Amino acid sequence: MKIKTYLLNAFTKGEKGGNPAGVVLDTKGLTTEAMQAIANKLNFSETAFVFPSVTSDYEIRYFTPNEEVAICGHATIAAFSLLAQIRAIRKKIYTIKTKAGILSVQMHNNKMISLQQNPPDFLKTIPREEITKSLNLDEEKLIPDMPIQIVSTGLRDIIIPVRGLSDLLEITPDMKRIAEISKKYNVTGYHVFTLETLHNSTAHCRNFAPLFDIPEESATGTSNAALACYLIKQNKKFEKYSTFTFEQGYVMNKPSEVVVNVSTNLGNITDVQVGGFASNFQEKYISINRNKGGAN
Length: 296
Description:
Layout: E1 2-10, E2 19-24, H1 32-42, E3 47-52, E4 58-63, E5 68-69, H2 73-85, E6 93-98, E7 101-107, E8 113-117, E9 121-125, H3 128-135, E10 149-152, E11 156-161, H4 165-169, H5 175-184, E12 189-194, E13 203-209, E14 214-217, H6 221-234, E15 243-248, E16 256-265, E17 268-276, E18 282-287
Helix pairs in contact: 3-5
């Protein structure tokens, strides 16, 4: 049986760049094995499978080419952009059931779509030497007064501060070692950033998740949401910021922009929203056994 899939780029910068995602709306009867096979065949960093839900407007499950993950920002943006483009939705605010919890999605008048994140968890700090070796980076090129720390607003990432843009762009990551360290600390991957930017943005970023077969990702919603919270906590300059704009994907020739809005009350982060734009969709059909999996 053939399944229609949709292909979109999310977190685009103008009409360019972004992070490609697959979206599947025809999900009736699909097993976990079938969804995994479809995601593997599409071979995007994530594919979103949209289901009806009793407790929310929709349920969405997310798959990398190799396994299921709890949440994915760019695939959610892609899914709701698709639903809007095919005129399947009309409201401004929706709820989605995910393995990271029930979250809200907001549709803005300028066609931006934003996804609620979980409150941030600021977790373990990691020795600098361990990380710099895996990036083939001199330790002196890290920002000295900001830690390397695991932060999560839905997915755990290692946040790594680098001094300059040239230092960030010249990184030559050791993917095997990054995967080993990611497994050791139970994280999705590395989110490396510098406060030196190409445009008038908050930070320029690169993201590595080889443990999930994603060597580098051009736009990462959950990681940038975690980064915004990290900046509020670790850099006094950002204590009162509410809107953060992040550049990503430029080294991959996929210029992308991720916008994060953070609300605080008495110094505590109370709400995190990650937003962006998506491209027009394309269609692709994949042959699949709905019950047993196996795409061709």
